[in-house]
Write a structure and sequence with these properties.
The chain has 138 residues and is an alpha+beta fold. It has one domain: Sufe protein. Chain: A, CATH 3.90.1010.10. The chain has 6 helices and 3 strands. The longest helix is centred in the C-terminal third of the chain and has 21 residues. The N and C termini lie far apart (58 Å). The chain binds FE2/S2 (inorganic) cluster (FES). The site of FE2/S2 (inorganic) cluster has 10 residues, from helix 3 and helix 6. FE2/S2 (inorganic) cluster binds next to helix 3 and helix 6.
């Protein structure tokens, strides 16, 4: 039987300590990309040197869409994708309350040394919301 590259990747990530939901988010990468008419674009560099750029589409104080561009690890990608699912359709203020623990719960598990990658995903999103608010009258 032939093993596809995503099966091989899945096995590697499982062995490294990623739970299935985290692996699905990483392999699907469903919120990776950019929004051409974004209302806000913000960028953050993590302590590891990896970079995340977040694109926000906002209407009536509600997050319509979010995309990330990421130069970073599997943990960073899965965390950012889960964060988008948590905040899409939410009011800006509610999205500010989303935290690392919420993302971790969705992912179920990622290696402990990757927990700072969740922080980077959440901080980048919060930075985007804060910058959107300050350039749109708070
Ligand atoms: Fe840099 Fe994961 S190691 S974001």
């Amino acid at each position: 039987m032939q093993i596809s590259s995503s099966d091989a990747e899945r096995k590697m990530l499982t062995d490294a300590g990623y739970a299935d939901p985290a692996i699905d988010y990483y392999l699907e990468k469903k919120h990776i990309g950019h929004i051409s008419n974004a209302d806000q674009i913000s960028e953050k560099v993590g302590s590891c040197g990896d970079i995340m750029k977040v694109y926000l589409k906002v209407e009536n104080d509600t997050i319509q869409d979010v995309k990330y561009e990421i130069t970073g690890c599997a943990g960073a990608i899965s965390a950012a994708m889960a964060a988008v699912d948590l905040v899409k359709g939410k009011k800006l203020n509610d999205a500010m309350n989303m935290n690392d623990g919420d993302v971790f719960k969705v992912l179920q598990n990622i290696p402990e040394k990757k927990h700072h990658c969740i922080q980077l995903a959440v901080k980048t999103l919060h930075k985007g919301i804060e910058e959107y608010k300050s350039s749109n009258g708070g």
